[in-house]
Amino acid sequence: MKSRHSSKTEPHLYLSLIWHQHQPFYADPRKDQLQAPWVRTHATKDYYAMAALLSEYPDVHCTINLTPILLYQLQNYYVARLKPFADLKARRIQKDAFLKKFAGKTDPWVDLMLKDTGHFDEKDRDYLIGGSWNAWSVSDVVLNRFPDYRLLKEKWSKDPTSLTTNDLRRIKFLFFFVNFDPAFLEERVRLHDESSIDLRKFIERRERGMYSLIRKITEEDCEEIVIDTFKVLKNVLPMHKSLMYYGKSHGSSGSMYAGQIELSTTPFFHPILPLIYDSDVAKTCQPQSKLPSRLHSPEDSDQQVRFGLEYFKKLFGTSPHGLWPSEGALSQAILPLLSKHGIRWLATDEKILALSQPKGLSKYSPHVVRHKKHGGEGIALFFRDTELSDKVGFVYKEYGPHAAADDFIQTLLKHSPQDGNEDRLVSVILDGENAWEWYRHDAEGRIFLRALYERLTLLYRERRAVTVTPIEYLDGNPRRGIPPHPLKSLPAIRRLWPGSWINANYDTWIGSAQKNSGWEILRATRESLVNSCIQKPTSFLKIPAEGTKMWFAYKSWVELLAAEGSDWFWWMGSEHRDGGKTGSMTRLFVQHLRSCYEYANRAGANLVVPDFESLLNPGQKSESTIGTMRRSELSSVTVRFQCDARHVKVPDSIYIVGNHPSLGGWIPNRVRMYDDGTHGDRRAGDGIWTIESAFPSGAEILYKFTNSGIMGEWYPGEELAALNRSVEIRPGAANSMVLLDVFGRL
What we know:
By secondary structure, the protein is an alpha/beta fold. The chain folds into 4 domains: 1-22 and 266-505, Glycoside hydrolase 38, N terminal domain (7-stranded beta/alpha barrel, Alpha-Beta Barrel), CATH 3.20.110; 23-242, no CATH class; 513-616, no CATH class; 636-742, Immunoglobulins (Immunoglobulin-like), CATH 2.60.40.10. Strands 1, 4, 11, 16 and 17 form a 5-stranded parallel beta sheet that branches. A 4-stranded mixed beta sheet has the order 12-13-15-14.
């Protein structure tokens, strides 16, 4: 292959970076209000900044996956509702007019910013500092960068009633402020639409990367931050659109191959599509699990995909080439459906490839799955490199930013082709929003990303490694010296293993008692709606006149599709111990189901709204008016973790941290171990610390230990750098396992 940078033909190492951006649907349908602020906070902290940063490195091409339900919340609940009342020149919101029309219609914290703090009532205080989603919902790493914020939290933790009006005003201000990308705190930033933001008048950067307030915060300051928030929110879409890579199929010869970011999408409400299509597919990858009654809905699967593509095209003017299926979840059965809608590529995890047929296929190439339906030549599948993806997501947060970038490049180059006859592609796929707030030595990971993009730019110019988007790899890009890799040249998968990027199965979403109960009530709700003969919508965008029977019918089906989202099932079950968030997410799931019934009845149905108590209170028995809900148990194994810490001083406790929610979800010093004869501990005071937890059969558990630290902080801990302990909970294992480790030693 000959390129404009090289005089010789040689195979290449390609890197496909895919940043996945998603938030659950936080809207309470009865209130038409978002119940959580995370779409907004990630927009000011990540969504705009990730794309803007890439624009500074035009030789780095990547893919950003934007889920439709994320974009819908961003555009509908924030941009559209704030725009008529935002005076950008005066830096003011028409507060009275906005609150008269849209109070309670964005998220509660926007209203709090525009309400005089001195007039807060108990409900306002609870939203701000009391609920499961409140102003303290930032990582300890972020909190440590803002000493004023940490001091306010410490004051609150000692005595919530001691907070003054001025304290509450600073808290609401800082909750917005700390969720801005660091660039906004350190310089004047010109946004895509030529407006600008400069927050330096509020803050000063101190030593060790800390930021301190330099003025008293007023209600006018709070109003200004809402304006600055709106500026960023309304620029998220235009920034992405300006950087879109279309490939050879778009535009005139002048615009062909322009752009550097391929935008991909996901089914609209982020469902686990294979389970919506046919939930019994889990029998293949979870043979030990007890499953709920079969949900078989190819029609809903088609709607989720069709609505997602329809909304994407409305926003960006074109259809996407590819799709990151929700949670990387795939099955053989859904591939013809996706091909029918013009999807040319998909991505999932390498564990799916390892279990597919034939065995021994290389993860360093996309593969094709061919099928006879719809006359297509098949669909290309790209497979996530677990090691590199997890390093960015979980490991580099403890590194210095340049050391992390160097390690990434060194790991990448180990995959370089070894002979003269092959190209190799490495796919790195992970959330583009959740990892950065844990980067301890680098505010929001931005120094790391700059260092990484600088090194990737140099590798591109040296032709040692080339970043590509999936469609760029498949179709080629002569401007960048990238040859095509057509489907007919790709190795073929004969039989695709069903599963997701987690554990190569679906056990994060189905197979435990409460998850199964959720699927049972979802299936029964759908059956009730189908039997009512309420007409299904053919388009998400063609909304009937509000208040008509057709409108209520449309709303009932949309609420059902919303209840099919993956996030509800992720949070259900005993493995999630964060009761506040778990309860909040399950209540939203139930509210979508209730609204489905209520809208259907107003459309002319005569349905009995069922009892949802078994979901809201899983410990209670409840008679359901829609039939028996099987509360089956997942085949699980109780693991007793023991840590021998007799050779180290333990001021407080040894803690365990790992990749499972019951191990803290990689948040250190969250899950305490015991040396007091309880929780499975055999002998009190012997220096061997113990905790027991149950895991589903087949799960791969990664874990390590810390010693008496602050929650969210890794030190003092084991000096194991990027290494973790691992154990596989094999299907068919005994009901219990005992693991004995020595602190600081593998």
